[in-house]
Amino acid sequence: MKIINIVGARPNFMKIAPLMEAYRSRPEITPILVHTGQHYDEEMSDLFFRQLGIPRPDLNLEVGSSSHGRQTAEIMKRFEPVVIEEEPDLVVVVGDVNSTIACGLVAVKLGVKLAHVEAGLRSFDRTMPEEINRVLSDAVSDLLFCTEQSGVRNLLNEGVGEEKIHLVGNVMIDTLLKHRERAEGSGVLEELGLSPDGYAVLTLHRPANVDDPEVFSGIVAALEEIQKDLPVIFPVHPRTRDRVAEVLTPRRLSKLPGLRPIEPVGYLDFLKLMAESRLVLTDSGGIQEETTILGVPCLTIRENTERPVTCEVGTNRLAGVRTETILAAYRDISSGEGGGGEIPPLWDGRAAERIVDILLRGRH
Ligand code: UD1
Ligand code: UDP
Question: Under a CB-based contact definition with an 8 Å cutoff, are residues 38 and 7 in contact?
């Protein structure tokens, strides 16, 4: 069984790592790893391959950055001959980035079966580029692997056949559980002069938050207050870099001693930073899930989430994107409100094994 596996952007690497590992003990499977090159900076790509022990990609399509249409089209153009040449039995895509839908479309149009890992998640907000990628990828997939029950429900509501849907758990959590102990050894707290429980971690990269100057300024106004209480460590995503430079000028930053923009950090350091923090502020998808497992309060700077289980049983809370709503949520958390701390069903470190079992059972 020849399987082409697709990665492109940072969160894809944590999701593919346990699958590549699970294939290793199944000689019936010949995996091929294709990197689209959507993310390419050392600290957005290669670093994760080394830290997570992901094999070197068999091929890098090197598409780089551009507009949505151009990037998606370029990935399709470069991936199509690969599928024609390799004649795989299956293509596996993960997550909800442009690489996911681009490669998924190429596969199905060539009559190759498609599996989507992390299927069914819905924010019901079609202004989010990821929502379009999620809906379309699921619509053309033959096998849909869900992380949470809401995903199953959404797919059934959209008319997807029950036989295609499998609730398997969360591959991103497979990776977290595998590397948690190793991450404890990270020296990042010492490097940044932080003490456990004495700081917050912040990430921001949703276009709706960082590309809109008004929204971004409102978020920064909330951070101005929060940094008075505790240092806010802010690994800056490349999308956010220019906006940060524009808004957080050296002069303004000098008045915000607690707000500390840094380069994006590797997986192990980031895991350690989250695990030891008092709270995490983020608009990331995956970080809402990781904080749920770590039991760290998460303020999600968004109006909605496609990962509702993290709010229902986990430590996640939707804080909105306005200064007042973010500060209100922050005050609640600071006064000890918001419990959570339960682990969603099947987030046990064995999702990839379940997926591989199902792939082999089906023998596509
Ligand atoms: C992409 C995904 C998003 C995901 C995020 C994870 C889409 C539509 N978006 O968003 O769902 O949450 O990755 O991190 O697929 N850049 C660099 N170096 C890099 C990569 C990007 O400098 O290695 C800069 C470029 O200026 C680029 C911008 O970041 O234009 C945005 O990159 P892109 O991959 O288009 O979208 P992300 O915002 O990273
Ligand atoms: N992450 C990391 N270093 C950072 C920020 C995030 O290793 O500086 C990890 C994080 O732990 C999670 C993944 O990157 O595993 C989330 O990716 P991102 O937020 O870019 O994408 P999203 O999940 O929003 O699609």
Answer: no
Helix (H) or strand (E) holding 33: strand 30-35
The total domain count for the chain is 2
Whether 9 and 157 share a structural domain? yes
Q: Is the CB of 95 under 6 A from ligand 1?
A: no
Q: Are residues 359 and 246 in the same domain?
A: no
Q: Report how far apart, in Å, the C-alpha atoms of 295 and of each of 108, 164, 193, 223 are.
A: 39, 32, 23, 22
- The boundaries of the domain holding residue 134 are 2-170+347-363
For 181-225, write each residue's pLDDT tens digit. 999 999 999 999 999 999 999 999 999 999 999 999 999 999 999
Nearest ligand by distance to the CA of 134: 1
Q: What is the pLDDT of residue 341?
A: 80
**Beta carbons within 8 Å of 74's beta carbon, 6+ residues apart:** 63, 66
Does the global pTM surpass 0.90?
yes
* 342, part of any domain: no
Summary mean pLDDT of the chain: 96
Residues assigned a catalytic role: 205
Q: Give the CATH number for residue 92.
A: 3.40.50.2000
Cα-to-centroid distance, 337 and ligand 1 (Å):
34
Percentage of the chain beyond pLDDT 70 is 99
Best residue among 41, 62, 97 to mutate for probing ligand 1, ranked by most atoms within 8 Å of CB: 97
Work out which ligand 2 atom sits closest to the CA atom of 235. Answer: 8
Report if residue 340 sits inside a domain.
no
Q: Find the 291 Cα to ligand 2 centroid distance in Å.
A: 12
Of all ligands present, the nearest one to the C-alpha of 310 is 2
Residues 77 and 95 in one domain: yes
Tell me the CA–centroid distance for residue 140 and ligand 1, in Å.
Answer: 24
